[in-house]
Structure formats: C-alpha cells, structure tokens
Design brief:
mainly beta, three-stranded antiparallel β-sheet, globular, binds zinc ion
Length: 85
C-alpha cells in the first residue's frame, strides 16, 4: 500500500464515524469508501447522491459520489472533525 496515515474521523457531536487511511497530504475533502477501515455509519451499499447522517445527532455527513470509478463520500466540512492518529 502507498504511504499515508490512519485518521479518526469524528462528528462535531463527538462520536467516532470512521477510521480512514488517507494517502498523501492536505485537507480531507472526501473519503474513498473502499479505503475506510472502520465504518460506524454503514456507507457500503449506499447509492450515489445518498446523504448519510451521523447515527448519534442526525447531521448530514456529506454526499456519496463516484470519483474515478470509486464510491466516495464528499464530506460536509461543517459536520466533520478529523484527527490524525
Ligand atoms: Zn453527530
């Protein structure tokens, strides 16, 4: 696998949403769903343009899109808090 970092992604309400292997540097804009290692929300199998919500507070986390042929969650920056681990 390419170099990168495992990051914890939390909702602003404080619950853990995902663990994600982020390649490269820079701000986290989207999550490629196949690269999520721990999915507490259940993104797998959601349709394109679905808008998953935080299971605790119900805020929208973003929108599912296809990016380079892979399903991805484009993050709603207002809802997500990410922490490098
Ligand atoms: Zn929440």
């Amino acid at each position: 696998m390419r170099t990168g970092k495992l990051i914890d992604i939390e909702c602003r309400c404080g619950i853990l949403l995902f663990r994600y292997f982020k390649a490269g540097k820079g701000r986290l804009i989207k999550l490629l769903i196949p690269r999520i290692t721990d999915d507490k929300v259940g993104l797998e199998g959601l349709e394109t343009f679905a808008k998953p919500a935080c299971p605790a507070c119900g805020k929208e986390l973003g929108i599912i899109m296809m990016i380079h042929g892979e399903p991805a969650l484009k993050l709603n920056q207002g809802t997500i808090k990410s922490i490098r681990i």
